[in-house]
Design a protein that fits this description.
CATH topology of the largest domain in chain A: MetI-like fold
Largest sheet of chain A: none
Structural class of chain B: mainly alpha
Number of domains of chain B: 2
Radius of gyration of chain A: 26 Å
Strand content of chain B: under 5%
Number of helices of chain A: 16
Shape of chain A: globular
CATH class of the largest domain in chain A: Mainly Alpha
Distance between the termini of chain A: 60 Å
Order of helices and strands of chain B: HHHHHHHHHHHHHHHH
Distance between the termini of chain B: 50 Å
Shape of chain B: globular
Order of helices and strands of chain A: HHHHHHHHHHHHHHHH
Oligomer: heterodimer
Strand content of chain A: under 5%
CATH topology of the largest domain in chain B: MetI-like fold
Number of domains of chain A: 2
Helix content of chain B: over 70%
Chain lengths: 297, 370
Amino acid sequence: MSTSVQTTSSVQNDRFRQFFSGLPLRITIIVIALLWTIPTIGLLITSFRPPDDIRSSGWWTVFQHPFDISQYTVSNYSQVLTADGMGNAFINSLLVTIPSVVIPITIAAFAAYAFAWLEFPGRRFFFVVVVALMVVPLQAALVPLLRLYVGIDLNGTFLGVWLAHTGFGLPLAIFLFYGYIGSLPGEIIESAHVDGASPMTTFTRLIMPLSVPVIASFAIFQFLWVWNDLLVALVFLGTRKEVSVVTSRLAALIGERGQDWHVLTSGAFITMVIPLIVFFALQRYFVRGLTAGSVKG
Amino acid sequence: MEQTFDQRTPPSNGSKPVLSFVLRVIVSFGIPILTGIALWWSFTFMRDADANKFLVAVVALIVGVGAVWALYLLTDNLVSLLPESIREAVRPYVFVGPALVILGVYLVYPAIRSLYLSFFNANSTVFVGLENYIFALTDPAMLIVLRNNIMWLIFVTSFVISLGLVIAVMVDRVRWEAIAKSIIFLPMAISAVGASVIWKFVYSFQPLPRPQIGLLNAIVVALGGDPQGWLILMPWNNFFLMFIMIWILTGFAMVVLSSAIKGVPAELLEAARIDGASEITIFFRVIIPYIRGTLITITTTVLIMVLKVFDIVFVMTSGQFDTQVIANRLVQEMFTFRNAGRASALAILLLIAVTPVIVYNVRNMRAGRS
């Protein structure tokens, strides 16, 4: 009976709905998911194969007898970590990244609090300037900053990179923190003031603890941004082996040993370990952080 | 009585505002400069001391992270020692000053300086007017660069958004949605350099009769074709590079759009279904208008990321074989050709290109919040 009253459009409609809940839909998603994973799996498997095997057969041939562990090796990793300097680069990356996250957060939180809750001449003007600075791509700062750095001998130092990442990250951080801190209820800040709390006490005891969510979002965004950055590291740290970070070291390896896939694949995987841990451990904040970072210039 | 009143309120004789202004400036510069000195000292100390690398790292982190906080607290305490009359006028600058100084040094000054340098020759000694800009917009090599950037903007953005949207709608209807989303989103976490190695391996080429170790050529050979050097196959090599960025960004678009789609009220969809609207109609007439704001934000975000693409091209081809883009050319002008004028002109063009997009995005974000 129901079929007799169906119009052609609703038959199509049903077919469409069926497609979107039935087998074809599942298969489509599985195909996309595979397309998105297979290259990474190939990299991972290759990084555990002996160099001669990599050159003579595709990584997929390991599936002919996947549990034969004699075809795997970890020697690629020990080589790339020591002889090719990836281990050193890994420590350098941590050294660059952690202060490059904490310093801008600190400075931006202080500034956002002042913009939101303290009275001072030029408050509105300065805030507009800070927001406007989000449009400046860091490329526009490279040439003059590099000259400045060479002039004061800051080039090739971690300090220089920390400050550069701080400068480039500040507008976004202040903008985000201001939006959050400014929307905290005024009564609690007023009452702290009435109780005799100084601005500094209000900031450390009240504002900072309340702002943990927005700080966490920005921290994740900035952490991945700095860890994965190549441009700032290349320009301000350079390619000297002692100071290079994982991305610039990997880029250098691609140039030096373009066909040595055992080095490149294991090296690439080392650069990915930390971001993958962050991704799987903090996935919910991760999305929030990346969305928040969407206005970075 | 009047006399005591006078004693309590500071006389506004003009010297106090000047004093407080001077103090504000000192406070603003004090923290960044002292931080710099503290960090610098720790670094020279560490460079001289031939200590264990790991120990050095720990010390650097403690100093780098702790010094900044300590300086804010210290400066605030110093301000508390000032006479009451100007203390509270100076105090906000303890909080906001360091940020303003750093922004001035790292963004305001360099951007203005870049604009200035863009009117000068390679080593910034001779004023050349608009010559660098004329070069950037008319030189045959630059025309290829601009063509490539426009292709990147069109193809990457449209693929990322439409693919992200379609996947977002599709995964909404399966039970293992979370896993599928994680898998597609994952490339967003890794660096563009790492992603480039992954795809360089997929695209790798060995002349016959050697076996193909790159997935793409292995498939081509298995289907009876000839293996290709994909990265030197002009002009198609551009698309192989673009695909890497599509691979990275699609998951990002998908996750953001998916959460927007989940925000569409169920009653709205139900009402449309009762009215006999097909799923396709619902998609275009109900869902798309409802998530319009998110769609615009994510599109503009992708546009900016694509406009500034650098790492992928730098790693895959260094801009050879007609794959050059603005950001990579800029770095090349800077380091390889040592032409500060041209590099600056390209930087300013990039700034001009991103400005309207970011202004739009920020407005959109603020409107969304209020």
